[in-house]
Write a structure and sequence with these properties.
four-stranded antiparallel beta sheet; alpha/beta; binds adenosine-5'-triphosphate; about 325 residues; Alpha-Beta Plaits; elongated; transport; Rossmann fold; ATP binding; six-stranded mixed beta sheet; 2 domains; 12 helices
Length: about 325
């Protein structure tokens, strides 16, 4: 378990982490989300004692990181996969970590096997791809067989097979009763991985809730309809006082959970429906709605590439439907 209480970090004028209080519990995967610069990495560094809080406290199973004996056997972390001596082989890198933490050498072979690096174990780390480096960082996190795992953007640089592998690995670690705390910007991946979410913006806590509740509370539900008798259905819905939004793709959308009502109205007027699907917006939309006021760094890519408005809207709609 990781417990934060009023955790605060100030760098000069910049309040990077602002009075964070939450608990990361065992047996579930807790996703840690926030826009760029929200304070995720700073928070994770404070968990590991790499940065000292300006105020507040963070404890690992009741202790500060520097009080832990053989810390790698209590908490394993992937923060910066590049933090490896490039001249060392993967095997030697892990062996050094093992020896300094009282971990038996055969464990190095086990974790290399787990992350799929056995074939390149004696190659120098400086020749590793981004994905191989991530795998080496994950091997280091697993080395001490710790009960608590913390990963900052673990899927960064991994190919689709690697992303599937890290997701499965994290799920099995949580199923074994371990505490898994993971940050990511890839919302579609987070939606498939995390059970619980902690969301921060500009250093402050915005949400600490289950994935299902987060999406329910921060996004809209709607019904998507397709019909070859579009005008008739529009008239019928209009007469019933139901507001309909026309999508670029030819589908219609109605806000709320009204699928049964619409189905009955259509049947009553003998209108053929090709689709009537209740939808819930994706984690991505929920995240963007919640964090929009806390986003510090905005790009203006639409103006730069001259993207047509209609196309942009269709893309947004397509993605939004994924979680439904
Ligand atoms: N050592 C430092 N000195 C000064 N400012 C810092 C330092 N480390 C982080 N910051 C600032 O603190 C804020 C939080 O940064 P942090 O890296 O924790 O955010 P993040 O949520 O991990 O961002 P990202 O998603 O972009 O990785 C940022 O404004 C950053 O510029």
């Amino acid at each position: 378990m990781i417990e934060l209480e009023g955790l605060t970090k100030r760098y000069g004028e910049k309040l990077a982490v602002d009075d964070l209080t939450f608990t990361v519990r065992p047996g579930v995967i807790t996703g840690f989300l926030g826009p760029n610069g929200a304070g995720k990495s700073t928070t994770m560094r404070m968990v590991l004692g790499l940065d000292h809080p300006t105020a507040g406290d963070v404890r690992i199973d009741g202790m500060h990181y520097d009080q832990l004996k053989d810390p790698l056997t209590r908490i394993g972390a992937l923060l910066d996969a590049g933090a490896v001596h490039g001249g060392r082989s993967a095997f030697n890198h892990l062996l050094c970590l093992a020896q300094s933490n009282g971990i038996p050498a055969p464990r190095v072979h086990e974790v290399l096997d787990t992350v799929g690096l056995t074939a390149v174990a004696h190659k120098k780390a400086k020749g590793f791809s981004l994905g191989m480096g991530q795998r080496l960082g994950i091997a280091a996190a697993l080395l001490g067989d710790p009960d608590i795992l913390m990963f900052d953007e673990p899927a960064n640089g991994l190919d689709p097979e690697g992303i599937h592998w890290i997701r499965t690995l994290m799920k099995s670690l949580a199923a074994q009763g371990r505490t898994v705390f993971v940050s990511s910007h890839v919302m579609s991946e987070m939606a498939l991985t995390a059970d619980h979410l902690v969301v921060i913006g500009q250093g402050r806590l915005l949400a600490d809730t289950s994935m299902a509740d987060f999406i329910r509370q921060n996004s809209r539900t709607y019904v998507r309809i397709r019909t070859p008798q579009r005008e008739r259905l529009l008239d019928v819905l209009h007469e019933d006082g139901i507001t309909v939004v026309e999508c670029g793709s030819g589908a219609l959308e109605v806000e709320g959970e009204k699928a049964e009502l619409i189905g009955e109205l259509a049947a009553g007027h003998q209108i053929v429906l090709h689709e009537l699907s209740p939808r819930q917006a994706s984690l991505e939309e929920a995240f963007m709605r919640l964090t929009a006021p806390a986003v510090e760094y905005h790009a203006h890519s639409d103006a730069a590439v001259g993207r047509p408005r209609q196309a942009a809207r269709a893309g947004w709609g397509a993605d939004r439907g994924k979680a439904g």
